[in-house]
Structures are given as C-alpha cells and as structure tokens.
Amino acid sequence: MNTVIPPWPLPAVPVARSDALFPVRRIFCVGRNYAEHAREMGGSPERDPPFFFMKPADAIVTSGRMDYPPLTADLQHEIELVVALARGGRDIPAAAALDCVFGYAVGLDMTRRDVQAELKAKGRSWEMGKAFDQSAPISPLVPAARIGHPQRGAITLAVNGQPRQHGDLADMIWPVADIVANLSGYVTLLPGDLIFTGTPAGVGRVACGDRLEGKIEGVGTLSVVIAQE
Ligand code: MN
Q1: What is the pLDDT averaged over residues 70-81?
Q2: pTM
Q3: Nearest-angstrom CA–CA distance, 103 and 176
Q4: pLDDT score of 228 more than 90
Q5: Is the pLDDT confidence value at 197 over 90?
Q6: Is it the case that residue 44 has pLDDT exceeding 90?
Q7: CA 1 to ligand 1 centroid distance, Å
Q8: Residue 17 Cα, ligand 1 centroid: separation in angstroms?
C-alpha cells in the first residue's frame, strides 16, 4: 500500500486463551440501557428506542492502564458488556442478531461527565465527553462459541476495592439482539464492530491512582489503573 504517511497499527483486542487478536473497526455505544442508571442520570426509565453514540476504534485500551484525560475534573466509570461482531448486515432481524456475534468482553465507557453535562445542557453533541483518547478500556474477548450469549449475570465495578456499580445483564432495557437489530437499521454493521451495551447504576468519579475492577459473571474481568499522564 502506497500511503502518504506511515500507516498505524490496526486497533485490536486480544482473544482470551489464544494468541489471536480481534481487529476493531468501529465502536458503537448505547446510552441508558438500565432503568436504574437512566433514573440516576435524571431521565425516564421508560422503554424508549435505544440511542447510540460512538468512540474512535483507537480509543480502546488493552494495557490495563489509562491516562487521566485533559480538560475534565469529573472522569467517571461506566462498566459495560461489550459485544464483538464477526458478521454484520443491514436491517438484521433480532432473531438472527446473535448469529453475528463473535464474542463478549468487559468494557469501560469512560466519560468526562462535566464536559458531557455542559454539552448536553447546550443541546450540543456529546463527542468530547465520550470519544476521547483511551476512553474505552476493554478486557480480552471471550468467544460466544465458548460461553454462549450471556443474558443474565452480575455486572459490577469496584474502585480501590469499594463496590460502586452493581447490576444484572437481565436488567438491560434493550437486550443484545434488540440492540444489534436496531443499530443495523441506522448503519450497515460490519465484522470488527464493537458495541458497548450501556451501564448499570452507580456511576461515579475516579482519580489518578485509582484501580478499577470490573466483572461480568460468565464473561470475565477487567482491571484498569488511572495514571497521571
Ligand atoms: Mn455508557
């Protein structure tokens, strides 16, 4: 390939118990997918259609260390089940959606809450609150061929050993199949796409030096330290 600047490495997530990598194409995220979290964010827990935002593919962090980002005094954690697609399509029926899934991971939708709140109040796009560098720490992917498609199980996050977030996958307002189906109406989904599926209640602030320990029953764990840049 004749490129005018050097090409960069393909963003990729390790596959658990394997030397293989899952290359990342795009990162889609679902807002407000657990009723308790919708309430804590001042919204209604009613079953509105899912809504989506994105992060750049190279926002993923697989090293277990995330630098504290600039221009925020309120960096917050959102523990989420992440879906990795091996196949895509457009207008995928919910009944066929899980056939597109390669596997699952534990992810953090790290959020500059103060920036997001300010943008939201002005009716502007959330991007700089959500789609910043290193804003998507993620665990190794576990193939669905091994664990199936988890539809219930505890999803938790602790900071420095103190429990912060707790929920159950069964409490998702829109389960994975419905999310894939709905999103594929907006865009043609493609192999390599990741979907962060929303966070349970208990989101909160982190500081430099904090250790975040996320866990999803039946999927895995994610450990991240917030470092000073
Ligand atoms: Mn989120």
Answers
A1: 98
A2: 0.96
A3: 12
A4: no
A5: yes
A6: no
A7: 36
A8: 27
Q: What percentage of the chain exceeds 70 in pLDDT?
A: 99
> Is CATH 3.90.850.10 the right assignment for the domain spanning 21-227?
yes
7 pLDDT band, cuts 50/70/90, is very high
Query: What residues flank ion ligand 1 with Cβ within 5 A?
Result: 78, 109, 199
CA pair distance 193, 97, nearest whole angstrom: 13
What is the domain partition of the chain in residue ranges?
Answer: 21-227
Distance from Cα 66 to the centre of ligand 1, integer Å: 17
* Centre of ligand 1 from the C-alpha of residue 30, in Å: 6
Joined tokens for residue 38: 């919708």
What spacing in Å lies between the alpha carbon of 136 and ligand 1's midpoint? 10
**Locus of tokens 């069964």:** 170
pLDDT at 127 over 70: yes
How much distance in Å is there from the Cα of 196 to the middle of ligand 1?
Answer: 7
In angstroms, what is the span from residue 86 Cα to ligand 1's centroid?
A: 22
Measured distance CA(43)–CA(105) in Å, rounded: 27
